[in-house]
Amino acid sequence: MVNDFVLFGPCTVSFLSFAAIYVAEDDIATYTIKTIDDPRTLNKTLYLRPPKNILSQREVVEIWEKLIGKELQKVTLSREDFLASMKGLGYAEQVGLSHYHDVLCEGCLTNFEIGEEGEEESQLYPEVNYTTVEDYLKRYI
User: Fold this and answer.
1) Which mean pLDDT values do the consecutive 10-residue runs of the chain (141 residues) have?
2) Where is the NmrA-like domain (predicted)?
3) Is 137 part of any domain?
4) pTM to 2 decimals?
């Protein structure tokens, strides 16, 4: 079992701009099927942003701690140290970590407004009972 966790500098702040969006695979399928015959989604981009699943890295760790009944030792790594740690890694590892940085530290999934070209799933389909991060993590207990 993991006893400590590395949090990445600004990614630990609970602001929408430093959050990631977590969506379970089954929920992606549910929303996809719902859009097939929905004229509101014709020629539009559907954004999956389940409100309870827009979380910072710290918030996800806190949910995990609650589930396991234990506080983990947390170490914060600055943005500069995180980026520096990628030097010397292979191209594939750098690409993966760069995406991780853009999502959690730059907020690339949450730092924009949805325009007329898109629709948000939680607005179109509020009846969908999506999987929360907490429920998803319970499968690993």
Assistant:
1) 71 58 96 96 95 91 95 87 90 91 81 91 96 97 91
2) 22-137
3) no
4) 0.83
